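Below is how a single chain appears once it has passed through the pipeline. First comes the sequence as given, then the structure the pipeline wrote out for it. We keep one example in the README because the format questions we get most often are answered faster by looking than by reading.
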Amino acid sequence: MTTYDERASLTDLTATVERVRSSVEGVIEGKPEVVRLSLTVLLAEGHLLIEDVPGVGKTMLAKALARSIDCSVRRIQFTPDLLPSDVTGVSIWDQQRRDFEFKPGAIFAQIVIGDEINRASPKTQSALLESMEERQVTMDGQTYELPSPFMVVATQNPVEMEGTYPLPEAQRDRFMARVSIGYPSPEAELQMLDVHGGVNPLDDLQPVAHADEILKLIEAVRGVHVAETIRRYAVDLVSATRTHPDLRLGASPRATLHLLRAAKASAALGGRDYALPDDVQNLAVAVLAHRLLPTAQAQLNRRTSEQVVEEIIQRTPVPTGSPQQRGYGLGNGPQAYDRQPPRRLG
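Resulting structure:
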């Protein structure tokens, strides 16, 4: 297991993330929790699905995050006529070499922005499956590795469904988290008019972190300690979705892994080298809800997946104990601690 150099890695992580956060928040007004979740997914080596109504800044958030990091960036505008080869690449016959030469597609970038991903056909959507899970592209029997770090930030509009193809379960399951930006507060919207009324905020956005720094931070996040009881708590939350009467499809084992990775990244962003139950709780809705399918009766009762996950959080016992009892610190083995009845989130 990777360990921190005392607190040096945590200090470096906090300083770098703070620069990126400030850069993105200069573009996305009044949404610090959305920016934090985006950074959590980046450091957890996941992919982010931004789903909301038009005009709230979905693509702006994706572009701001990409431009704040000195990484290669490609944007794919998903349309019904987009072909899988436009995403992954294509082999072209080279007359001089008398052989096929592979021309990489738009997926060969460190930050890939997929705009309106649900407007592409299912065949084109499926071109992302291998890339998102295995970070590689297989073409004509050859495997091509994708650059690192690698993150797909996709947007979709859940309201205007005409001419769209809903993402299949396998595609949604590959996104670590889904976030909805929501409308800004009146104060934030007024500030947006003052600051961004005459200029594009992305024009002056400069990179504040390098790809090498992000790779080091990702390696540091991998070393965050997660006690056995917290791992079991994550498993309990995910398992509860598979037996809930309002769901016809629960979360997969991949969801458990994503929830654990996101919790480790959240702990690191909080300046800790150990995860807490709160890290799991705070991310459960964002990581699990988009993977779940409500039953027909639940849909008639207007029960959403988010509501079901919140209910599961309330019902699942939370592991508790004092910091001294937990033994979270590096060099200490995880200590068992009591499982208390669930507490209501504030």
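The first helix runs from residue 8 to 25.

See the next section for the split statistics.
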